[in-house]
Design goal:
The protein has 110 residues and is mainly alpha-helical. The protein is 46% helix and 4% strand.
Length: 110
């Protein structure tokens, strides 16, 4: 699979759930390519903005879309890595504030 194919597949399924790709297409494709690298490396698409340990069970919370996405988008209009955003975020109706890391520290330190 390539980034363009992944883009089309995810766009269709995620927009139906109210999650949109960032309008910064270059950023989106950089992240999608990194997801594909992680899929090749680990066997699953770990968030490229976080450090995966390579153990699917331990990384389950950061497999894209991560379990933190919903809360991030509800609160900030964007997920941690800015891949998924709300429509209002894309349209400039929400400030593009920094999204803090929600992953608990004990999951980060392997």
């Amino acid at each position: 699979m390539n980034a363009e194919t992944l883009y089309e597949k995810l766009k269709k399924t995620q927009e139906a759930k109210g999650y949109y790709f960032n309008v910064d297409r270059e950023r989106v494709f950089d992240l999608l390519e990194a997801l594909l690298v992680n899929k090749q490396r680990y066997g699953y698409m770990a968030c490229p903005c976080r450090l995966a340990c390579g153990d699917r069970e331990k990384d389950r919370d950061i497999i894209c879309p991560c379990v933190y996405r919903q809360a991030d988008v509800e609160q900030y209009g964007s997920c941690y890595c800015n891949l998924y955003v709300s429509k209002a975020w894309n349209e400039g109706g929400i400030d593009h504030a920094y999204v803090p890391e929600r992953r608990p520290p004990e999951k980060i330190a392997f």
